[in-house]
């Protein structure tokens, strides 16, 4: 194996975890109270809440550097509970029209 090939493989290997993390978005979201829809297109997850208050259980809730999560919850509130065993990392964009709470007993 040539030095150039080794350097290329090392570069690809070093960049792969960062690229995968940059695409991280919340997973397994379902409404436990209130109502709305959760959709993901590309690197963006959109929550369109149709009730004034909502509770969403998530398997995991992280936003990678290239990701975006938008809560369209009017002037209401959304409580997000992480039920999986993953830490949360918020490196991308998190936006909301109302109030958003995130509870993860596993930490950040």
Summarize model confidence as the mean pLDDT.
85
Number of strands: 8
Shape: globular
User: Can you count the helices?
Assistant: 1
Residue stretches low in confidence (pLDDT < 50, at least 5 long) are 2-22
Could you characterize what this model shows?
- The protein is of the alpha/beta class and 108 residues long.
- The chain is 19% helix and 39% strand.
- The protein has 1 helix and 8 strands; from the N terminus they run αββββββββ.
- The strands form 2 sheets. The chain has a 4-stranded mixed sheet, with no helix packed on it. The chain has a 4-stranded mixed sheet with strand order 2-3-5-7, with no helix packed on it.
- Strand 2 and strand 3 form a beta hairpin.
Any key phrases for this structure?
108 residues; alpha/beta; 8 strands; 4-stranded mixed sheet; single chain; disordered N terminus; 39% strand
Write the layout of secondary structure elements.
Blueprint (H helix, E strand, L loop, with lengths): L2 H20 L7 E4 L2 E6 L2 E6 L3 E6 L9 E5 L4 E6 L10 E4 L2 E5 L5
Parallel strand pairs: 3-5, 4-6, 5-7, 6-8
Antiparallel strand pairs: 1-4, 2-3
Quick synopsis:
With 108 residues, the protein is an alpha/beta fold. It has one helix at 3-22; strands at residues 30-33, 36-41, 44-49, 53-58, 68-72, 77-82, 93-96, 99-103. It contains one helix and eight strands.
